[in-house]
């Protein structure tokens, strides 16, 4: 540790940030995309592109559930579980699903789903096998190709480091509030410092909130001790206690026909006259122990767990429900959770979350680049750069330019892979990681301006390819989306075009910077080359 | 419309905060602000930002504070762009911002 508070904090900020910055970049990048996970899934499934959102969505729910029960009674009579997922504003289609028998070694049953257009009640074309936006959502905290619990511990540590870096950053960047609106262009590492400060300060409340609440979402994994000491069966007992469960009829034996679903719905609408039902689940249908769980939207309340009522399927009696009024601790936990996910945010707030996420990516990326640039500037001409510097520069190139390219590869693979390909969803993900690996290998070999320029050009072409390939492989394109007011699809394609333009501008900037360096003088040229990211 | 009023108040507030700084004021008006002008700008900025916060919380409930934080981020970004890349347009932008506050406020008052 250094000898003064300020120097200690600078040391802490630099090293705490540098150690985890590439992982944090991935977490922020995937997390930012996850705010649009439903829209990404929509784009990845051409079968639902033309499904229009219902105008009388809530009014139609009762009939959709009744029809669903008839459908499931005839198709999944012997199944252990049924599920009716109702259309939501961002997920415009209806799903009737029943569990298939478990195969050996399987932990959970797979569902046989039938997707319907809620406007016509016609079955939709078969869905392609894709993870869609859920891939980025899980990548955000489960990473990939590793055990989920290990990954979550790693993500938690990175978040903790991020929190330290944010707080120490506020301390060391003394002028961040004074120079809040200042951005000095073309000033070498000073410009990168301004970009770092500006992206940090403009979304500082967001950065603090998202990092802190991110750790809270995994608090029971990080800090299980109170629950472990209070419950005989530890965390399982704790979760059973806070999640409504059927303890009244769960031991009942034998078969019993289920009561008509109207009786259940009448009770739901008596309790919540304007209920926006999101899902109905049936466990052990046609058995004496069967339960029917009705989940409703929490609306605008800061609540993560959907309010639900659980009924006995055999008697129609309500056997459990979520609390109407949450205890202080539960309300705090749920509100922090829902703040992190922004699950119930309006479109405006969702875009503002994305702005915060992008600011986070810029903050982390500019921090990484700034460290490397400063060390480069300090390294004398005749001294070979250290392994550490080369490693940081390589990781910067691989992460900052590799992730956007890998994302494009994921979407291009979604359109180009045949719908009949075995394990298609995994192959889309493989395309993502192989592309990222290729960029990392390139960064291993060389990492100077030329490589950044090449990567920017490839990213520009890849971003342009996404809407073009979409137009060539589906019935829609950016113009038709605009004409038919399919805003989610239009925005998706438009964003890729915008990023394509931004990457072209970056390519040009890097080219002109290189040309300028050739025109001036050899010594200045060397100096400039060293300053390039 | 209530969101527009909340956002335009927040934008106005950061515009006033920026103008209260000597360098930005000088960039826009080619002279240094007097102490009285600075105090008035700061007062307007604080009133405006508090109004924006209250509006967000009153209308959005739990998500209001998050919306307010988002408005702050967007406002700082817009102000930064204008004061660093489009200084010549700051006066027009300030007028437009004030008009937006008045119009959205009037619309809400009349409906």
Index terms:
heterodimer, A: alpha+beta, 3 domains, 19 helices, B: 111 residues, mainly alpha, 5 helices
Task: Note the topology.
The complex is a heterodimer of chains A (533) and B (111).
Chain A: H1 5-34, H2 37-44, H3 57-75, E1 81-85, E2 94-99, E3 111-117, E4 122-123, H4 133-142, H5 148-172, H6 189-202, H7 204-217, H8 219-222, H9 225-230, H10 234-242, H11 261-271, E5 277-283, E6 291-296, E7 308-312, E8 318-321, H12 328-341, H13 347-378, H14 387-416, H15 424-445, H16 449-473, H17 478-483, H18 487-519, H19 522-531
Antiparallel strand pairs in A: 1-2, 1-5, 2-3, 3-4, 5-6, 6-7, 7-8
Helix pairs in contact in A: 1-4, 1-5, 1-13, 1-14, 2-4, 5-7, 6-13, 7-12, 13-14, 14-15, 14-16, 16-18, 18-19
Chain B: H1 2-19, H2 22-29, H3 35-60, H4 64-85, H5 90-110
Helix pairs in contact in B: 1-3, 1-4, 1-5, 3-4
Question: In words, what does this structure look like?
Answer:
The complex is a heterodimer of chains A (533) and B (111). Chain A is α+β, with helices and mostly antiparallel strands and 533 residues long. Chain A has helices at 5-34, 37-44, 57-75, 133-142, 148-172, 189-202, 204-217, 219-222, 225-230, 234-242, 261-271, 328-341, 347-378, 387-416, 424-445, 449-473, 478-483, 487-519, 522-531; strands spanning 81-85, 94-99, 111-117, 122-123, 277-283, 291-296, 308-312, 318-321. Chain A has an 8-stranded antiparallel beta sheet, covered by helices on one side. Chain A binds chain B through residues 178, 180-183, 185, 198, 201-203, 205-206, 209, 300-302, 335, 339, 342, 344-346, 348-349, 351-353, 355-356, 359, and chain B through 3, 14, 17-18, 21, 23-24, 60-63, 66-67, 69-74, 76-77, 79-80, 83-84.
